[in-house]
Amino acid sequence: MINDMRGDQIYVYRNLWDFDGVYQHHGIDCGDGTVIHYRKPSEIVERTSFATFSRGNPVSVKHYSQGFCFVPDVVVARAESRLGEDKYNMLFNNCEHFANWCKTGISDSKQIREFIPLMEKFNQTKLYEVIKRSLNQTDSNNAHRLVQEALSDIKVVWEQVQPEYKQAVAEIESWQKVAQEALKRDRDDLARAALVKKRDYQQKAWKLEQELNELADMTKKLLITDG
Fold first, then answer.
1. What percent of the chain has pLDDT over 70?
2. What fold, for 9-108?
3. Does the global pTM surpass 0.90?
């Protein structure tokens, strides 16, 4: 029996390995109780049961309110044409790339496009290893382009973090002067309050400095990889 979800692009939320957070795992509903998707951990395009795909988690449908989509039979046929494929690549050919291609003909992953610009939320060493592993699985010309895109994204993050760091350093100096002036006027209470503010900004500056150092380290590693 064929259900009315045949040809739909569906997804569930799963844990993102050892990173904090989750990601969407995408597949194509075949309408007969099976789903075609880049199965994990095999990293092969397989047809599995709906239950295997969902793992007991709620399943959502990706809606395309605008733009071209293939009719359901074509979507399923496109998914079937890639059964057995074993060219999984987290950044460049993942489950969302596959499902989007089946549905629209365009291999794209919104998750990945949003992933690198938000990289300051993740452990930089772990993230670099993911990028390096993915680059090693693609051709050299494409790898060079992708490295340049990654470097551009790092620059975006750097330009967001650096001004915050400079502002925190300026606040440290400012509150130190306030504390010194308060002591000159025998206002120990104001001096203590100013030193608390200074300490808060010192902690913030330290955290931001760590992020900048990690971004600089990742930039260096990516340049070495690209060279």
1. 69
2. endopeptidase fold (from Nostoc punctiforme) (3.90.1720)
3. no
